[in-house]
């Protein structure tokens, strides 16, 4: 049964990230070169994903945890999201495109937390099995990039039609997932629980509070990569850009396999520290690639290949840490909360700042075929990520190792019998 479950969840992850990969990287190029949006508008467009993530916990809390089984809600969100993706190409102005994109993101982002929560609920050994299942998300992202590149869709609205068709398929496939009924049905459920606010109780733990603070702070420099990389490579005239950037997800596959071993041997603190350190290295390497001559291509590829450690050792390890800290009743709320931080508030601030920094560093006159001061642009998130690394290293503490349940039970019985 677990083998069949893992196959279904792997396929689910593939489709979920195929959708995302079809449009997220190439959208910046489409908006800049086809629709001629300004840098600040491009940053706001990427921030639509963050707004969707901020809506997500309330949608999940009010609907998924209270009334509907997770797999059914995933189906509805996937199909409606597919329809909205097909509407986006009809929007040619920022005033039309931006609200339509926000609506789509509000439909898509909840599927991330719901999918993680559903997977963690049904997998027998989440710490080992979840990274292996999640590995197919990297393959799905690669598939989306390759599909868009194959049809030369980086500057074309076809990327949204591809994503829309995949989203409808994703919604239909979600109905095959194991039944996951809402956990918060019943008369004695508070409004706070419905909205997922019970997960905020985890912030009473100092280590968890520091973890959340660092996740928020690292998201600010993190989104410079997603907002600006496509534009940077377009100015460098890279051919088959989307296929080349998909090497990031090839490294994802390797680090997904490595993650369980690292968590077992190194623990959460060292693993997440390595993830943040790779973001620091990635941005300094990108900054060094500007005007680097013959070494430029090698430096950019190095930055791309760091993605597996950047993403898996930070985000996936972080999701597993949250799952360890939460009990079963608040697991869904806790995953919604971390999604709110990673893809919501942090992403909104990060994408907004990335767009503004891009606009500020636009050159008055193009130099060497470049319209922006890319060295200054990449150094900004490099120093920001370095500051987060120092905060995390000093203040975060690994959670105490939990004793086996039978040992805890025996100790409790002893204490009960002692006068």
Parts with pLDDT < 50 across at least 5 consecutive residues: 403-419
Share of helical residues: over 70%
Q: Helices and strands: which structural class?
A: mainly alpha
CATH level-two architecture? Up-down Bundle
Q: How far apart are the first and last residues' alpha carbons, in Å?
A: 48 Å
CATH superfamily, please? MFS general substrate transporter like domains
What is the count of structural domains?
1
User: What is the number of helical segments per DSSP (H or I, 4+ residues)?
Assistant: 16
Arithmetic mean pLDDT: 85
According to DSSP, the number of beta strands is 2
Instruction: State Rg.
Output: 22 Å
Note the overall shape: globular
Within the largest sheet, what's the order of strands? 1-2
For the largest beta-sheet, the strand count, sense and barrel status come to: 2 strands, antiparallel
The CATH class: Mainly Alpha
Strand content: under 5%
Here the CATH topology equals Growth Hormone, Chain: A
Series of secondary-structure elements, N-terminal to C-terminal: HHHHHHHHHHHHHHEEHH
Descriptive overview:
The protein is mainly α. 77% of the residues lie in helices and 2% in strands. It contains 16 helices and two strands. It has helices at 2-23, 27-34, 39-64, 70-87, 94-122, 126-150, 158-174, 191-194, 206-235, 241-245, 247-289, 296-305, 307-325, 331-360, 374-395, 405-417, and strands spanning 362-367, 370-372. It is globular, with a radius of gyration of 22 Å.
